[in-house]
Amino acid sequence: MREAAISIPTEVVAQPAVELEGITKRFPGVVANRDIRLMVRRGHVHAIVGENGAGKSTLMKILYGMQRPDEGVIKINGDPVAFRSPEGAITAGIGMVHQHFMLADNLTVLENVVLGSEPRKGGIAIDFRAARKKIKEISDAYGLGIEPDMLVEELGVGARQRVEILKVLFRGARILILDEPTAVLVPQEVEELFDNLRVLVGQGLTIIFISHKLDEVLSVADAITVIRRGETVAEVDPSAVTARQLAELMVGSELPSPETRDSTVTDVVALSVEGLTVRAPDGRAAVDQVAFTIHKGEVLGIAGVEGNGQAELVEAIMGMRPADGTIHLADADISSWSTLRRREGGIGYIPEDRHRHGLLLEAPLWENRILGHQTRRPNAKGPWIDRAGARGDTERIAREYDVRTPGIDVDAAALSGGNQQKLIVGREMSGDPVVLIASHPTRGVDVGAQAAIWDHLRAARADGLAVLLVSADLDELIGLSDTLKVILRGRIVADVDPSAVTPEQLGSAMTGAGEES
Amino acid sequence: MSPAAGGFLDRVSGRVKLTGWLSLAAPLLAILFAAVITAVVLLITGNAPFATFALMAEYGVQPRSLVLTLNFATTYYLAGLAVAIGFRMNLFNIGVDGQYRLAALLAAAVGGTVALPGPLLIVVVVLVGVLVGALWAGIVGLLKATRGVSEVISSIMLNAIATGVGAWLLTPALLAVPVAGSNNIGTRPIPESAHFPGFALIPGTTVKVFGFIVVAILMGIAYHVLLTRTVFGFDLRATGRSESAAVASGVNVKKMVLATMLISGAVAGMVGMPQLLGASYSYSLDFPAGLGFTGIAIALLGRNHPVGIAVGALLWSFLDNSSNILDLEGIPKEIVIIMQGTIVLSVIVAYELVHRYRMAAEQRRVSRELTGGTGGSGGAGGTATPEGAVSR
To answer: Which residues fall in a compositionally biased region of kind Low complexity (chain B) (predicted)?
Structure first.
């Protein structure tokens, strides 16, 4: 669909920067990596793609010394190495930029960068002057545009990521591992990042880029390795492959799609919210005068960069957080109802963080079936827990929602993320919900589970369920929603027609740069 | 990986279950280990370990010792239950000690002054104890629910206050009278008609087993039913396992904190009853103190399981009673305190090791059964990479 914008491999290098041969890593019961082979040329952006759980992260942890392979050889610049810890990898010139930033907000860029490798003056004092100079040099040399004395909390997401990159360059890295660097960025920021990366490789650095966003990979990578189920399945040239071919290599089967185009929207209001305002502890409005209406059979999508009030909005609707404004469930004013009463009234809830809010990890599946539904059939009869009823219904959910588990007595922690999520979706769909609040329903689940969850959402919508969908996956939002609203700094700033919008336009609206369409 | 599946503290306080033979192996190994440590201490202090243990065992199984073991254990069991209820919800009720002492004092005072037919008076005395214990613990719950005061701090402080209030109440000006034939003072004795009848369960001794042992057993059953069979118990355990998940599921955590403290305090209010209604019949200056802290150790030993707590209470009580022989033989009986302490510590370590083993084993089992079952069908989602669990 688009040709790769190949950057400038300045020299033809004989010696690859990184070579992995026959890397195998086993965890209890799972082979995370099996006989992985990988060759990364110096001055390349080398992308490693694969779906969640394919083994990309494990492989990178091995390369960065966080885990040791059971078998196989790692060569850096031609020399075999065996890292015992990340320090060894750093010494060898490897740096890792993690998906989640590891920065202290209340420190300056300078302080964050030197943290852990402080240049000394006279053995004791930190030599801030030398550090500042070095940061300036690096920033200028690679066009990162970093101001060493800014507080990190004042920086945007893109700038924070550049600080992370600068941090590893400061430690002398010549080979950078970027783990899902675009996951937290909007499309414009992604473009900026890619420009930075091209400058870096132009100066002879090597970048290993882990992602499952194929368009991005195709636009930035010089070489691509596909990993599936822990094995390297293909080495491809980005100029000779389309995103769809790449995706099929990744998944090994037909691709799912979140598209829903036949409208099932009715004119019966299921949930309406007016003037909803949630105050953060500092008095700032995290959600500011939000209003919307969801009808039966309608999916209302909320698009926005994370941290713009989505979590607070959802928790206010669930009654987990005090809020001003009114919330109506059908005709009933539920603003003063407790979380329990709202749930009993027919609001289902797929939380954003399934470990914190959705599951009791060290409790068996059937007890997790009860969670959130502990006052209702089939889980309870009056004040008593109905064990047989709950267990039977857990069996049903496992069957209907394809939760892969040897039984309902295993702990939720023993299941993979996708299966945990399917259990939660099945649970929240049980008991005839009227409204479903779905926060990132397919985050961190594999493609198979994602397709299954989408199917369930679509089927429920066709049966008249009203869904509030909060997601960071723009394709998911555009594909599933009947109506789309954009949230920015707690306010609804735009209404978007999902059938006419592109991810790029939506991305602009999310940063406040775009205009309403 | 992502947020750990239950912290170390959860395991220590037993909110995480162990199954099968492991649940037995861990404490047995810990006791064995404690015996080894004690033996070393005995060797260092110049005593023969095996001879000492043999002495204790021989004395401990004599009929009188056995009865005393059962009687102490009855009290310990109630104290363990009171602490365990809090533990199951992540509440550390250190205040059981103050709760039971104040409860026993006031219950004894009521028992000595109110004129009622025997069985009715017993019920009233127990109810007063339960009520006082619940109210005293309720202060802790209220402070935590409304002001966010840590229950550990407030209950420790309330222990000290209970001691002070008790000392003030137990004076001749208020509730105390001289105990006949001594310079001790205590509350008016409870009339004989309201003594809780004991059982002559074990032949060869005139000492009777507390009748209250039946009540203790019933309380254990009630504890189990409440926690595992009721919605309230589910909410309580859910809150203990993950407060955030409980909130999202609709549990009102503040209400639960208050309710749990009230129940824990109510059970704590019963801790003094076996002694009061079965042996001393009055609360005097030498009424047993410190049982609340024994209860903490026993709840830990028993992993908050009703049967586990019973075993812990019996073990603790056996060691207490059988050690009485040691002084006569010139061996410091404090050796038993070392042993009890080592048991608690090593049990916690053993549970932790077993827990890790079990988690890894379960994940292995799940992924083996799944990969075996689906036979490499190539479908996505087939591999079970455990999430949020301990690997490595």
So the answer is: 383-392
